[in-house]
Amino acid sequence: xxxxxxxxxxxxxxxxxxxxxxxxxxxxxxxxxxxxxxxxxxxxxxxxxxxxxxxxxxxxxxxxxxxxxxxxxxxxxxxxxxxxxxxxxxxxxxxxxxxxxxxxxxxxxxxxxxx
Amino acid sequence: xxxxxxxxxxxxxxxxxxxxxxxxxxxxxxxxxxxxxxxxxxxxxxxxxxxxxxxxxxxxxxxxxxxxxxxxxxxxxxxxxxxxxxxxxxxxxxxxxxxxxxxxxxxxx
Lengths: 115, 109
What we know:
The structure holds 2 protein chains of 2 kinds. Chain A has strands at 4-6, 10-13, 19-25, 31-37, 44-49, 56-57, 64-70, 73-78, 87-94, 105-106, 110-114. Chain A is mainly β. In chain A, the strands form 2 sheets. In chain A, strands 2, 4, 5, 6, 9, 10 and 11 form a 7-stranded mixed beta sheet that branches. A 4-stranded antiparallel beta sheet of chain A has the order 1-3-8-7, with no helix packed on it. The mean pLDDT of chain A is 92. Chain B is mainly beta. Chain B has no helices and 11 strands. In chain B, the strands form 2 sheets. In chain B, strands 2, 4, 5, 9, 10 and 11 form a 6-stranded mixed beta sheet that branches. In chain B, strands 1-3-8-7-6 form a 5-stranded antiparallel beta sheet, with no helix packed on it. Chain B is globular.
């Protein structure tokens, strides 16, 4: 069974704090993604990575950074949390090969509240 | 800009059939996905269409018309456990997924 694990289901942080969201996948996938999910909006891509030490900006990277030191782990960092970063954060992974259906597998999400 | 439209909420009766529509305008097209997301849980893959026509998988079917920028997800013999949000997503020319806001499906006994 494929598994994407996010370290926390719920987090409450204060404005200005540095926040780390961790994601680990056990499927040996090359690609990993961070999204945020807000009511009434589709999933929005923050950052993604196609390989270790590699990262690409998504649609809304401002205020976020990422780290991928190992293939199975992709971390999302909020350098200085703000209230508008209160959201559900979803991590996903997928295989690299574009010739085949590129199904993304998701973690259960981290609901972050910034006070 | 890129846009995916689907109804915000639908209600159906247990045992009935429901069709959830999705229309899209994207820069390029490399396939359309449907995902199911129960409240508080991870989205899970349901179907993928890249060619026109109907793909059937048990009680669930997905249809695509590329010329019309349109897809639907058809759920038959509805069960209470089908109460969930259904997310439509299109793989654009850069192989990035563009997501709709999701349709919340409420099943009533």
